[in-house]
UniProtKB/TrEMBL annotation:
Pfam family, one: ArsA_ATPase
Superkingdom per UniProt: Bacteria
PANTHER family hit by this protein: ARSENICAL PUMP-DRIVING ATPASE ARSENITE-TRANSLOCATING ATPASE, ATPASE GET3
Protein name: Arsenite/tail-anchored protein-transporting ATPase
Family from the record: Belongs to the arsA ATPase family.
GO MF term set: ATP binding; ATP hydrolysis activity
Domain AAA+ ATPase intervals: 9-195, 345-578
InterPro entries, sorted: AAA+_ATPase, ArsA/GET3_ATPase-like, ATPase_ArsA/GET3, P-loop_NTPase
Length: 655
């Protein structure tokens, strides 16, 4: 039995991995099993992924209030809503934060309120850490199970306690000025509500850090699938977990195909076997739990129970074709060719959707097609997803330098290291602040404290400023006319939505920071720093205008024919309308081709319900169905075949 299912001392179990690997299913099934096995224990399963699918897994409404799971008396679930948590946090602690800033700098209360509120919105991971700290402090639950966001954002989450300690440090520096002056004039210092707030924050974050590193009480369970992209992400995740001293003992290898009923199943199974062997070699130090590919969605209590039984190794799964029904008539929904998308005079084509739906493959195939159709134009395909997969798709190293794709003279790839770009900005900002304060003649305690606070303010930058830095880099290419077309492979839905909202948030943040800097205009010269901030603000405005210009940009939604995929697609559609980003195309990916095979027929029957549902709900969109390949899409030959299916009306050789 895996340790996370048998260790009664565990208080915290986290599931993470590539989008679409089955993290949520694994977390929900584990929570359900442990709740039923130990009725005396109170168990809470929490999703920190902004694109929640916990409710879909349990087949019930959950949302941002702790909700009891029907029929299981000791199991509760929560889908964290970062903005609601932020509102609550500001309501409880806003006055203390304002007081701290009022004491600590030249800024007035309004300035500080603006700055702190702007630095937090959308900070899903920060609010998740604070909420986990609150839940731990309450002592209401014996075990917390965390369903985390896709890999890149989970890596960011794990680094956050240290980042938040910096945030507390900035506020503590503000309070230090008050402590100094109080002692200076009264000879002693008495702690007040600001000190108590800071102590509580230090204690809370310390509690989370301590629990994350405690091998007796915590376990992280990576979930992977037998594909090279997922294996690579798992390697990156394991390195981060090791770096943060977070215990890992088990790895779930999900969606392992076993059927040999038809050539398609056999081909898929053979393709997976080499990856299963790679997993066994690379992750030999861990207990590997292999889970089968099911012909149906794991949704609802009964399906989760079945999943948990196999996870526990109490049962083995075999597909029984004895209950075959007549084949379902394949949807007559017309598959709209997408060739006209490439004929438009667009600068940017953006691909987004739920994790694991094939965004990277489709973005790469589109870029390849675009390059071949326009041999005299330069095409750049780039990834803003923190867990990059472009290198895997093209089967060649790309990284964070513009790389010419082998055998295609006008196609370039870039996996932007957004974190490095942000660190560069922070270093430049801090150097500028040091320089301008060094030039200030005179001094005194006020300037000493203000220098420290101003130097650290950049560490309170809004979430995703790193991603904005990535887009700023792209806008520089646009200004220099370096490329003619840009194809974007974006992060998974929840983080993508936050990313699309960011230009507005970051512009507000920069305006506020700029206004704060101007407070010092009469005291110190801020010319170069002010210019840098104005330049960044201008770039952000250009990004916003470009994304909202239907003549320049088009968004393509990628989904798969499953309930969770459709739910994500609807959320994304609503957000794109609100953000005024042009979107007329939907790709339903991984559609199982018609087959006599009982496994494929059963899965196809389930999929077609969702294809028909999507065509009704998205009647105004051009819907393009793309078949599931019996092997991983990797390298130029596979990408060429995929591009022909999407754009060239070519017959699919796997149909």
């Amino acid at each position: 039995m895996p340790g996370f299912l048998g260790n009664e001392r565990l208080q915290f179990v986290l599931f993470g991995g590539k989008g679409g690997s089955g993290k949520t299913t694994s977390a929900a099934a584990t929570a359900l099993h442990l709740a039923q096995l130990k009725p005396e224990r109170s168990i809470l399963v929490v999703s920190t992924d902004p694109a929640h699918s916990l409710g879909d897994s349990f087949n019930c409404q959950i949302g941002n209030k702790i909700t009891s799971i029907s029929g299981v008396n000791n199991l509760w679930a929560l889908e964290m809503n970062a903005s609601a948590l932020l509102e609550d946090f500001n309501r409880k602690h806003g006055s203390v934060i304002k007081k701290l800033a009022d004491r600590g700098t030249y800024f007035d209360r309004q300035d500080i309120e603006d700055f702190f509120s702007l630095s937090l919105p959308g900070l899903d991971e920060v609010m998740a850490i604070i909420e986990v700290a609150n839940i731990l402090r309450s002592g209401q639950y014996n075990l917390i199970i965390l369903d985390t966001a896709p890999t890149g954002h989970t890596i960011r989450l794990l680094a956050l306690p240290a980042q938040m300690e910096k945030w507390i440090h900035v506020m503590d520096m503000m309070q230090d000025k008050h402590r100094y002056l109080f002692r200076h004039f009264t000879g002693k210092y008495v702690k007040d509500d600001c000190d108590k707030f800071l102590e509580m924050m230090v204690e809370d974050i310390g509690r989370v850090k301590s629990l994350l590193n405690n091998s007796q009480l915590t376990e992280f369970v990576p979930v992977t699938i037998p594909e090279s992209l997922s294996i690579d992400e798992t390697e990156r995740l394991l390195l981060t977990l090791k770096e943060h001293k977070i215990p890992v003992r088990n790895i779930i290898v999900n969606r392992v195909a076993g059927g040999e009923e038809c050539p398609f199943c056999l081909s898929r199974s053979r393709d997976q076997q080499k990856h299963v062997r790679e997993i066994e070699e690379k992750f030999a130090a861990y207990n590997l739990i292999k889970m089968p590919l099911f012909p149906h969605e794991i949704r609802g209590i009964e399906a989760l129970r079945e999943f948990a039984e196999i996870l526990l190794e109490k049962a083995s799964y075999s597909h029984k074709p004895s209950f075959l029904e007549p084949p379902l008539e394949i949807s007559s929904t017309p598959t709209a060719g997408m060739s006209d998308l490439l004929k438009k005079d667009l600068q940017f084509i953006l691909f987004g959707g739920k994790g694991g739906v094939g965004k990277t493959s489709i973005a790469a195939a589109t870029a390849l097609r675009m390059a071949r159709c326009n041999p005299d134009k330069k095409v750049l395909v780039f990834s803003t997803d923190p867990a990059h997969s472009l290198s895997d798709s093209f089967d060649c190293p790309i990284g964070d330098k513009i790389t010419l794709i082998k055998d295609v003279n006008n196609l370039y790839g870039l996996e932007i290291d957004a974190g490095r770009l942000l660190e560069d900005l922070k270093k430049e900002y801090k150097a500028d602040i040091e320089e301008v304060f060094d030039k200030f003649l005179g001094g005194g305690i006020d300037i000493k404290f203000d220098r420290e606070v101003m130097t650290e303010l950049i560490s309170l930058s809004p979430p995703g400023l790193d991603e904005i830095m990535a887009l700023k880099k792209i806008m520089e290419f646009v200004e220099d006319r370096e490329f003619d077309f840009y194809i974007l492979d974006l992060a998974a839905t929840g983080h993508l939505l936050r990313f699309l909202e960011l230009p507005g948030l970051v512009r507000d943040w920069l305006k506020t920071l700029f206004r704060l800097l101007l407070k010092y205009k009469g005291v110190v010269r801020l010319t170069s720093l002010a210019e840098r901030m104005v330049d960044l603000s201008k770039s952000v405005r250009e990004i916003q205008e470009t994304l909202m210009d239907a003549k320049k940009s088009e968004f393509v939604i990628i989904t798969i024919p499953e309930a969770m995929g459709l739910a994500e697609m609807e959320r994304l559609q609503v957000a794109l309308k609100e953000l005024k980003i042009s979107c007329h195309y939907v790709v339903i990916n991984m559609v199982i081709p018609p087959s006599e095979c009982s496994f494929c027929a059963l899965k196809s029957r389930e999929q077609q319900k969702y294809v028909q549902e999507a065509s009704k709900k998205f009647s105004g969109y051009l819907i393009n169905q793309v078949p599931l390949f019996p092997h991983e899409i990797k390298g130029l030959d596979d990408l060429t075949n995929l591009s022909e299916i999407m754009y060239g009306r070519a017959t699919n050789q796997f149909a």
